[in-house]
Each structure stands twice: as structure tokens, then as C-alpha cells.
Design brief:
- It is a single chain.
- The protein is 47% helix and 5% strand.
- The chain folds into two domains: 1-16 and 78-110, no CATH class; 19-76.
- By secondary structure, it is mainly α.
- The protein has a three-stranded antiparallel sheet with strand order 2-1-3, with no helix packed on it.
- The chain contains three helices and three strands.
- The longest helix has 24 residues, at 51-74.
Length: 110
């Protein structure tokens, strides 16, 4: 789905930022969470965890959740203009995008 930049009038696909929607960062976050759980949690004694193990476990779970959300975000089109780096590109087919196109009299390439 094509996007429209309201600053430089670029029409095309947007891009993701450095951390949002980056598949490699998402895989690293999930791997970090799994590694933290594997290294710091003693599976033979899960009932009596000390406070440092609880903190590490919480950080690991949050890292895994953020990584999963990042993977899901990677499937959506980016909202940052690749030409001028302005965030918040408009969808060409949305009502707001159509209104902007009519106001600026922009020609949409096929």
C-alpha cells in the first residue's frame, strides 16, 4: 500500500526506524530473553527464587515480548519517509490522504 509524505511529497513505501520493525533486532531481543532464562533460572528450584533471579526473569520475559511485538511490527508497512525521514506518512487511499492530494493537486503514479 502506497504512502504519501506531507513534507517532500514522496509517494511510495515507507521504511521502519532502527528498532521498530527490524527483524534482526527482534531476533536478538528474543534470543537475549531465552539466553537470560536459560542461564539464570535454576529449573530444579523454581519455588525459592531470590530477588535477582526474579529481576532477571522479568527482564527476559519483557525482552521476549518486545521482540515478538517487533516481529509483528515488521510485517506492517513503515511510516517513515525514506527521502526526508519525516515520520507519519499518510496512506494514499485514506480519506486524509485523498484530501491532502486534492489540496496540493498531486499526481499519483501508477
Amino acid at each position: 500500500m502506497k504512502k504519501l509524505c506531507t513534507r517532500c511529497l514522496y509517494i511510495g513505501m515507507g521504511r521502519h526506524g532502527l528498532f521498530s520493525g527490524n527483524i534482526y533486532v527482534a531476533i536478538a531481543q528474543i534470543s537475549l530473553g531465552i539466553a537470560l532464562i536459560a542461564v539464570n533460572i535454576d529449573t530444579t528450584n523454581l519455588i525459592s527464587l531470590n530477588w535477582t533471579q526474579i529481576i532477571v526473569f522479568t527482564i527476559a520475559v519483557l525482552s521476549i515480548l518486545v521482540g515478538i511485538l517487533n516481529l509483528m511490527d515488521a510485517r506492517k508497512p513503515g511510516l517513515i519517509c525514506p527521502r526526508c525521514n519525516k515520520p507519519g506518512m499518510l496512506d494514499v487511499e485514506s480519506a486524509e490522504g485523498q484530501r491532502f492530494i486534492k489540496e496540493k493537486q498531486i499526481k499519483i503514479p501508477q
